[in-house]
Amino acid sequence: METPYQNHINKDDFEHVYEPAEDSFLLIDALEKELTFLKQMKPLYCLEIGSGSGVVITALGMALHNSIYFSTDINFKACLMSKNTALYNKVLLECVNMSFATCFQDKKFDVVIFNPPYVVTETEECKSNGIEASWAGGLKGREVTDKLLDMIPKILSDNGVFYLLLIEENIPEEVIQIMSYKGYKSEFVIKRRVKNENQLVLKFNR
Ligand SMILES: C[S@@+](CC[C@H](N)C(=O)[O-])C[C@H]1O[C@@H](n2cnc3c(N)ncnc32)[C@H](O)[C@@H]1O
Fold first, then answer.
1. Number of domains forming the structure of the chain
2. CATH number at residue 138
3. In testing the pocket of ligand 1, which one of 74, 80, 199 has its CB within 8 Å of the most ligand atoms?
4. pLDDT tens digits, residue range 18-40?
């Protein structure tokens, strides 16, 4: 999959918005591995939660045509950057400034993607809607992720697929268990050791 053009972004903007890093590119690599499956699936609506700079959803939009792309971010500046990244790469994207996907409740999305704030921190640290929201994940680095897990059945279509990036400290086995209680199968898509982090992408569907 092609890496989206990002030269429109001013380096200083990354003081306020998450700069694409190894985790962002691992998620893109996971989607590339899944591309044949996704093309056969022909998803109509795709959503990235927490799109940050917009590189992940834009890369998907550049590779998978005929889908309609949405993203959300709790950080307003990230929404502007996501929208611009998509625009510069000729992907039509609607980015909404909100927490998770709280205004979408009708099992609309065939593909949902999330690279969450996954760093283990104090609970108090994960209440920001600025740059801290990019990384502060609270207890087990899972406080934000766990809230989304509860919303997945409300936003994912019955044949839909959910891709989630985690690190080992997030205890992926527990996430698999939680999703299994909700009726989802899970698969490891890709794993990579980056500096001192074991990053991985899980796929969930019914
Ligand atoms: C690790 S960054 C990932 C950014 C981008 N997806 C990437 O892979 O480069 C996490 C993103 O999630 C956003 N975020 C955190 N909590 C959120 C929430 N409750 N709802 C929506 N977005 C959230 C942050 O603002 C940040 O942009």
1. 1
2. 3.40.50.150
3. 74
4. 999 999 999 999 999 999 999 99
Q: How many degrees, rounded to 5, is the angle at CA 132 between CA 129 and CA 54?
A: 75
In a domain, 1, yes or no: no
pLDDT tens per residue, range 101-115: 988 878 899 999 999
Residue 129 covered by a domain: yes
CA of 100 to the centre of ligand 1 (A): 9
* 9 located within any domain: no
Give distance in angstroms: CA of 13 to centre of ligand 1. 15
Q: Residue 52: CB within 6 Å of ligand 1?
A: yes
Question: Which residue segment(s) compose the domain that 32 sits in?
Answer: 25-205
Residues 6 or more apart from 160 whose CB is under 8 A from it? 43, 107, 109, 110, 111, 112, 205, 206
Residue 162 CA to residue 112 CA, distance in Å, equals: 5
pLDDT at residue 103, as a whole number: 86
Protein residue with least CA distance to atom 4, ligand 1? 52
